[in-house]
Amino acid sequence: MTKNTPIHVIGGGLAGSEAAWQIVQAGIPVVLHEMRPVRQTEAHHTDGLAELVCSNSFRSDDASSNAVGVLHAEMRKAESLIMASADRHQVPAGGALAVDREGFSAAVTQTLMDHPLVTVERGEVDGIPPEEWGDVIIATGPLTSPSLAQAILDMTDEAALAFFDAIAPIVYKDSIDFSKAWYQSRYDKPGPGGTGADYINLAMNRDEYYTFVEALRTGAKTEFKEWEANTPYFDGCLPIEVMAERGVETLRHGPMKPFGLTNKHKPDEKPYAVVQLRQDNALGTLYNMVGFQTKLKHGEQVRIFRMIPGLENAEFARLGGLHRNTFLNSPKLLDNRLRLKAAPRLRFAGQITGVEGYVESAATGLLAGRFAAAQRLGIDLPPPPPTTAHGALIAHISGGHLADEGTGHQRSFQPMNVNFGLFPDVAIPREDGVRLRGKEKTIAKKRALSERALGDFANWLANQLLARAS
Description:
By secondary structure, the chain is an alpha+beta fold. It has helices spanning 14-25, 67-77, 81-88, 101-114, 146-156, 206-218, 240-245, 298-305, 330-333, 358-376, 389-398, 438-469, and strands spanning 7-10, 30-34, 57-60, 90-91, 96-99, 118-122, 136-138, 161-167, 170-172, 182-183, 199-204, 273-279, 286-289, 316-318, 321-327, 339-340, 343-348. The protein has a six-stranded mixed sheet, with helices on one face. Strands 10-11-12-13-9-14 form a six-stranded antiparallel sheet. α2 runs parallel beside α12 (438-469) and α3 (81-88) packs across α4. The radius of gyration is 23 Å and the shape is globular.
């Protein structure tokens, strides 16, 4: 294959779009295959590239002490299309980076459609790509079409892993009662494009909270099909009613925690629980219910969520839903360049590899694109060091999990957001000869991990430039 032979990318989500972008930045053409609108999925609503099907938040943008914020910063250093589009279409969200979902998708779509080295082909790839395609990145996401998923399973002779992912409802802002609601970010923390008053907050007293939790626990839920019955949930995206079933106080220490918030309508009365709504579009007309992903039936959602003070007359632009996601047993099947061991011309990226979250998915697309481009240029590109956020994700995907003796099956492997627990430990310097303890130690450690990661990632990028120049 020559530099002018295109690399094929299957899937126009965040991972596939980022992979395509990274490849064309190396001067190599791409054919990007997206099956929508020829074939739709259970979760998508448009035919746009990089459509956000769940939350509109890319989570924390704090690169000094938060692992996902570090991943944001690393991607920006690598000139990520996903991050550039997110930055252009951000909406206020406290310390998080949230985006206008339609503007974000439109920006990614237009950028790729306009690029002279990108060809977008609409239609389903329903089997293993033909040999004549050469290098291929499969970034079809957790909603991979059944025919392609089965073809992958047949090739790997590996049982698929799966988990349920739930979607939170979206509320029309003008249907919220602001005699009860107020604007505030937790601890008044401003974020990118924010003011420190970026969320709509709805307070509950103790009796209201307990009544609400009981309604969640007893409300009618979506019935699973027989083949779905034993599919686990991803712990980072549990339905609100599943959290409620784990204990009456669980939600108060999760998505409904009242800490760092003061009800401006009753400043002397501490809320027992608080529901937060985050801006979902640039116009500020739509707000999503943070942490309220659900498998409640639609009628029950309207009834129960209108029990929340301030949402008595709420109108919903979208109700919550549930879909089944699939992912590979990546530590067994993929190497540390994201290649399928059984067929190295095939690379995988995105949630199908076992990362969880928009940014993590895009980051694996960034890596897969750079690995594929480097190989086409005859460069042996090593993965980023595990001290970086990207390298920590690669390590998670390609190894480091408990295995059953004899079979080698990675029984502990499950979808994972980036977190500092995936990073190698770091030494924390003493201050004035005194060893730090408690909260001060935790803060110092996070800052040290962040600083090391960004420095090591910058060096990894610089070495690529040197290799390409030589």
